[in-house]
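Tip: read the tokens left to right.
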């Protein structure tokens, strides 16, 4: 997979992603009331690292984390997740790994429902809708 992992970002990429997340949060505050009415579940701000893998890269019964990269999440709901990364992801379906409080990772298969290029150093913002839990 040709996606840069968040733990390998340069200092300028780290600063750029933080500026981008702040900017997207400001936009959400301004437009959030309109979109709250059409969402199935309320979004919660979530600034954290999540794992991302492509289903085609993971062998049946394999561990998605063996083929995953880390990306910055910006919000989370019961039905989906928003994240940013410096790469275009052409796939319609991805695997998202959320690290739980006990240190384990819960993997979810998700459909990409939004992708848009941002103005910040070539980063892309994605919205995914969870389809099902994946046992790893």
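Filled-in amino acids:
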């Amino acid at each position: 997979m040709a996606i840069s992992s968040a733990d390998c970002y340069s200092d300028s990429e780290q600063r750029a992603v933080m500026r981008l997340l702040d900017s997207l949060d400001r936009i959400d505050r301004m437009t959030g009331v309109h979109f709250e009415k059409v969402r199935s579940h309320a979004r919660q701000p979530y600034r954290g690292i999540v794992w991302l893998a492509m289903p085609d890269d993971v062998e049946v019964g394999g561990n998605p984390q063996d083929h995953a990269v880390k990306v910055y999440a910006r919000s989370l709901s019961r039905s989906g997740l928003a994240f940013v990364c410096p790469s275009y992801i052409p796939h319609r379906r991805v695997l998202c790994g959320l690290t739980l409080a006990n240190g384990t990772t819960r993997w979810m298969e998700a459909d990409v429902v939004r992708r848009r290029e941002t103005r910040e150093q070539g980063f892309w913002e994605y919205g995914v809708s969870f389809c099902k839990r994946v046992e790893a």
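The mean pLDDT is 83. Residues 17 and 44 are 19 Å apart (CA to CA).
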